What does this fold into?
Amino acid sequence: MDNQFSITSINHMLKLQTITELRDCNEYTQQFGLSLTDTQIHQLAEKRFEALEDNGRVEFGEGILKKLIRTFCDSPYLTQINYEETMEALQDSFYYFKNESEDLLSDDELIEFMKDAFDTVCEGSIDYLNSTSLEKLCRDIRNGDQDANEETFE
Amino acid sequence: MKEDKDENNRLVLFETETMSEEQRGEFQSQLWILLAQRTERYTMGDSSSVPVEIAEELWKSICYCITVCQKAGKRSSASAPINVKRLFLLG
It folds into this structure.
């Protein structure tokens, strides 16, 4: 895209929007004993753009963080101590595996799969999620297995 | 073909050179909103993000349509409010 247009100011606007969204999320997640401090919110917003850049993606409007937080906040493996760190890693994984699945999975499908795996076979381990469950899912999707994302971990 | 696309980009940008700072900002934000709308349509609302390559293609298609409109002399007068979406649709 042409850099002559002020991408920096647009990014700044999007960052402010992300920060507001994350503050709103705090109200919802407090019932699960989870909340982010202002510093953590700023850090996560910053990481959003880093993750997008690292994975060669462009995002408009509200980011994926809000959806991730709302989906994962009731996970038994999420505590106040690992909350920010986990969200940061999940955000990274999301964009990475979005690419790996060649965009054949919608945001909701991928998040749902991640949450199912995270709470069951992965037992809260992001490394396990990244190196086994999501790898397998994306491999199956690329190989044309239409039902790959319907697999459950009960 | 690549040169044509670059030329489209330049023509759209040339449009902004004659604008005031305020109009330029308005033009940019409208272009950004239009790109966001085209992206949402492209993904059918399934995905909030797209690979950079796809965003670039969508960006080029917007530039192309606006350029066609400009070349056909359908651009509004300098005093009229800027409406990027209208330029795009006319193109």
In short: Helices of chain B lie at 2-17, 21-43, 52-71, 84-90. Chain B touches chain A at residues 9, 13, 28-29, 31-32, 35-36, 39-40, 43, 46-53, 55-56, 59 (CB under 8 Å).
